[in-house]
Amino acid sequence: MAEQVVADKLKLSDAPKKLKSKVWQYFGFRDGSPADKAKCKLCFTDVAYAKSGSTTNLMQHVITLI
Ligand SMILES: [Zn+2]
């Protein structure tokens, strides 16, 4: 898939396994980027998420795309 190729170029790391929400399949982390920002694998936007583990922001971002 083209998206995967781009993701490889950006060296996105998958979210840690401890992050169990399904929404994490759409987000990764880029090496060196702030840990409180997840990068969307679909449009490569940085999306902030709460350290509390809330994925509300991420959910809302994905919902606008799918
Ligand atoms: Zn996105």
TrEMBL record:
Its transmembrane ranges are none
Give the signal sequence positions. none
What SUPFAM superfamilies does the database record attribute to this sequence? beta-beta-alpha zinc fingers
Which InterPro entries does this one have?
Answer: Znf_BED (IPR003656), Znf_C2H2_sf (IPR036236)
Q: Name one Pfam family in it.
A: zf-BED
Alphabetically, the GO molecular function entries are: DNA binding; zinc ion binding
Which parts of the sequence belong to the BED-type domain?
18-66
> Which keywords does this Swiss-Prot/TrEMBL entry list?
Metal-binding, Zinc, Zinc-finger
Q: What is this protein called?
A: BED-type domain-containing protein
